[in-house]
Amino acid sequence: xxxxxxxxxxxxxxxxxxxxxxxxxxxxxxxxxxxxxxxxxxxxxxxxxxxxxxxxxxxxxxxxxxxxxxxxxxxxxxxxxxxxxxxxxxxxxxxxxxxxxxxxxxxxxxxxxxxxxxxxxxxxxxxxxxxxxxxxxxxxxxxxxxxxxxxxxxxxxxxxxxxxxxxxxxxxxxxxxxxxxxxxxxxxxxxxxxxxxxxxxxxxxxxxxxxxxxxxxxxxxxxxxxxxxxxxxxxxxxxxxxxxxxxxxxxxxxxxxxxxxxxxxxxxxxxxxxxxxxxxxxxxxxxxxxxxxxxxxxxxxxxxxxxxxxxxxxxxxxxxxxxxxxxxxxxxxxxxxxxxxxxxxxxxxxxxxxxxxxxxxxxxxxxxxxxxxxxxxxxxxxxxxxxxxxxxxxxxxxxxxxxxxxxxxxxxxxxxxxxx
Amino acid sequence: xxxxxxxxxxxxxxxxxxxxxxxxxxxxxxxxxxxxxxxxxxxxxxxxxxxxxxxxxxxxxxxxxxxxxxxxxxxxxxxxxxxxxxxxxxxxxxxxxxxxxxxxxxxxxxxxxxxxxxxxxxxxxxxxxxxxxxxxxxxxxxxxxxxxxxxxxxxxxxxxxxxxxxxxxxxxxxxxxxxxxxxxxxxxxxxxxxxxxxxxxxxxxxxxxxxxxxxxxxxxxxxxxxxxxxxxxxxxxxxxxxxxxxxxxxxxxxxxxxxxxxxxxxxxxxxxxxxxxxxxxxxxxxxxxxxxxxxxxxxxxxxxxxxxxxxxxxxxxxxxxxxxxxxxxxxxxxxxxxxxxxxxxxxxxxxxxxxxxxxxxxxxxxxxxxxxxxxxxxxxxxxxxxxxxxxxxxxxxxxxxxxxxxxxxxxxxxxxxxxx
Lengths: 420, 420
Hints:
Helix content of chain A is about 35%, strand content about 20%. By secondary structure, chain A is α/β, with parallel strands linked by helices. Chain A folds into 2 domains: about 10-215 and about 335-415, Zn peptidases (Aminopeptidase, 3-Layer(aba) Sandwich), CATH 3.40.630.10; about 220-330, Alpha-Beta Plaits, CATH 3.30.70.
C-alpha cells in the first residue's frame, strides 16, 4: 500500500453523468429497464471501463455482472459490493446507478492507491432489481442466492413489448460473452455491501449525510373486497342499504387513525381503491382496495395484520356486506449482520461522519444477499425523498460523502473479525 | 254514463307483455332507449291501439306523444295522465311502461263504460325520461314546461352510436307524422297524474300496495378531489405523508356516521371513488369521489351541504392535502299540489286501499310538470326495490291495484274543486 485509498469525487460525478446519458429521458431521468438496449449499453460501458483498468469481468446465468479486483489470496471468498443498473420506465439517474458506480469508484480508488487487499473485492450489477418489465423485482440477487433460476421465469413476458424473459436474458449474456468470463450462481462471498439512495425523506430532513441500514422491514400485501348491493341513491333509505364503500371507508378511517400513529415503525398504505358499478347516483355493489403493510418486527406484523383483518370484519358486519381478503405478498423482515453494521459504525467514526441507524422501507438486493453472507447497506439522502421519478436528485456533495463512507466501510469490512 | 268505469286487469297485463316484447333483452328486461328503433316501435304500437279505439293522437316538437279522449267541453284544459316508454340499456319492463299503459288502460276503461268527462283526458308518453343516451333526463317534460327546446340540445350525441339528438327527434316525429296531429309545447292542462314503480323497497317491505307521492326530494351532486403527494409506501414515515385517500376516507367515514343516521329523510351516497396513480406500494397523489345528496327540505339540504363541505375541509387540513369541490347538479325539492294529494287520499279511501304518503327519491317527469299544473304521483311496490335492472318486477296484483287506484284518482281529479 503506497498511500491511503481516497475516492475521486469528480470522477464519480462524471461517471454518473455518463451513465445518465444511457436511456436518458426528455424529463432528465432515465428509462433503462432491465435487459433492454439501454441496460445492455450500460453493462457494456461498465465492462469497458473495467477492462480499461485491468479488472476481470464475469457474468453468471442471470446476467449478473461482476468486476473483480484480485486479492493477494485469490482463493478467499471475495467481498462483494454493488447495486443495479436497471431503472424504472420513468426512473431517476441515481436509483441503482449511484450504488453501482460508487462501488466501482472504490475499486478504482483502491487500484489508484496501489492497495491490494488480502481477499478479492468484486463489484456487482444485479439484473432486474426494479421488476417493472418482469416481476418479481430483485430477480438477479434472488436467483444468485438460491443458486438456480426458477423454471417459471423462462416464459415471463415483458408488459409493453412481449419479449420473453429467457430470450432476453440469454441475448444479454451473449452480447458480452466474448469479453467476459462465466460464473456460477451463488458462489461464496465474505460479505455484501450496497449503497443506495434513501428513497425517503428522513436523512434530508434531519440533515444527516449517511444512513447505516440495520435491516429491511417485512412487507405484506392484502387485497380486500367488500360486496354489498347496488341500489338507487335517491330511493334507498339507510335501513335498506348494504353499502360496501361505507364498510371500506369506515374500516380504513379506523386503520389510518391507529396503525401508524400507534407505532412509528409501522407503514400502512392503501394505494388502490375501486368501486363498481361507479355511477354517481348508485350505491356501489363492490368496493375493494389494496393494503401495503410493513414493519421491521415479524411478531408486530402478525399483530397488525390480525388487527387490520378484525377492523375490516367488523366494518363488513356493520354494513351487512360480504368480505374477502387475499394475501398477495409476504416478505419477512430482515436484520442485517450485527458484525457488518458494527463495521459501518466503526468506519463512520474513523472518518468523523454523522450517521443515522435506520431500517430500509423498500426492498433491495441486499435483502436477498443477507441470506447468503453478512450484508449491510449505506443510504444517502435524496431530494424530497423522491425516487422512481425523473426528478430524483442527490446533491453532488452527498454522492461524494457516500463514496467516502463506502470506502471506509470497505476498508473496515476487509479486516473486521467475523467477516474477513 | 252507463256504468261505473272499471279497469280491465287482464288487458293491462297483456299490454305490459306486448310492450315488454319491444326491445326485449335475453335477460328478461328491455333495451328501449329513447329515440331508438325500439322506442319508435313502442310509440307506433301505442298510436295504433289509440287509433283503434277512436282516440286522437298528437305529438309536440319534443316528440312527446298525446292520446286524447275528448271531453264534453273540448275548450277546457285536459287532465294529463301518463309516464314514459323509453328505458335504460339494461332496463326493466315496468319503469315508465307501467305508468303509460296504466294511464291508457284508464282511458280505455272510461270509454268502455261510456263515460265522457266534462274535460278531456289525455295520456302522455314523455320523450327521454331516462337520460341515458342524451343527458339530462326528463327532456320531454322539461321542454314541455319551458315551452321551448334548449338550443344546446340539438347537437347532443348519443354515447354509443353518435346519433345527433335533433336528427333523431325529427326522424321520430316524422315516422308518426302522417297519422297524428301537431301540438304546441306547454299547452295548458288542469292537472298531471303519473303512476310509477317505487324503485325503492319501502312499500314492498311494509306490504302497502299504494304510495301517494307528496313531493320529490332535492338533489345536489358534488365532485370532491383531494390532492396530496405520492410517495413510496415503504420508505415514507407518517410525518412525511400527505395522503389524500386518508383525508377522503376519514371525511367519508364521518359523513356515513352522521348524515343519514341523524336524519331519516336524508340520502347520502358516494357512487364513484378513484385514486391516482393507483399503485399498491405508492401513497396516492389524488383521491376523488362524487357525492349524491338528497333531502325533501331545501333548508336542510343547505345545512347538510355546509356540514359536508366542512367535514371535507377539516379532513383536508388534517392530512395537509389540497381540497377542491365542484357542484355538478342542483335540483330543488318539489312539494306536489296539496289539492292533488288530497284528491288521491280521497280516492284511496273511496275504494278502501291502504296507502303510504311518501317522498320520491328519484326524479320523474312529474317533478317538472309540477311547475306547470297541480301534479301528483302514485307509486306501486317493486320486488326488492330493484329498478334499472332486467330483473325489475312488479306483482300482477300490484299492477292491477295500481290501475284501480289510478282510475279512482282520475275520477277524483276530474271533479276536485281547485283542480277541475
